[in-house]
Amino acid sequence: MKRCAVCLVLSEGILCHGCQSLIQAPTNPCQICAKPLNQPGGICGECRSDPPAFSQTICAAIYEPPVSTWVQQLKFGNRMDRARIMAEALLKPLQAIDNNIPIIPVPLHPKRLRHRGYNQAHEIAKIIAKRQNRPLLSDALIRTKNTAMQAELHEKQRANNVRAAFAVNQPIESDTVIVLDDVMTTGQTLRSVAKCLNQAGVDEVIVAVFARSGA
Hints:
Layout: E1 2-3, E2 10-11, H1 17-20, H2 45-49, E3 56-62, H3 67-77, H4 80-94, E4 103-105, H5 110-116, H6 120-132, E5 141-143, H7 155-162, E6 166-168, E7 176-184, H8 188-199, E8 204-212
Parallel strand pairs: 3-8, 4-7, 7-8
Antiparallel strand pairs: 1-2, 5-6
Helix pairs in contact: 3-4, 4-6
């Protein structure tokens, strides 16, 4: 028996049943961006008026406590056990995606990567890739602009902040890819990544995030 990564009680998996129940998937998610809606099977207003370059979003949890705390602990606190929690939560929904489809973590700018010492999206992606025997394209994308942190900006500023912030760094042979990040808030970062990949010849971009903001 192991110990739960959150409450430390004896557990068969990374989380005990009690802590596992704290991971709540979005209710009635938008079929494209996974934003919670009032009714099932719909598409949110933003995706209708300004469709993103990705086709769907696989999401494990709503971005609210304690999920939001775990995300912050991984991103800023070097808590690699939180990456395992997030990867485990995404394994089941990603089983529906062919294992030959590669996974691409959203990159950090080299300056931020040096400061933080790791890329939280890559930490999650490499666990999933290993468990599902899925290709991991760690260097397929680069971040060409050292952008301000999205969390520090208003919604209208976020799109400008990440516009043309990414570039393809190597040939991508697959027509379909999974782009992985830890959390989606307004979705502007992932919109920018997907547009970059589309322009490079990728036909379909599937987004996978551990958590989705309900805002």
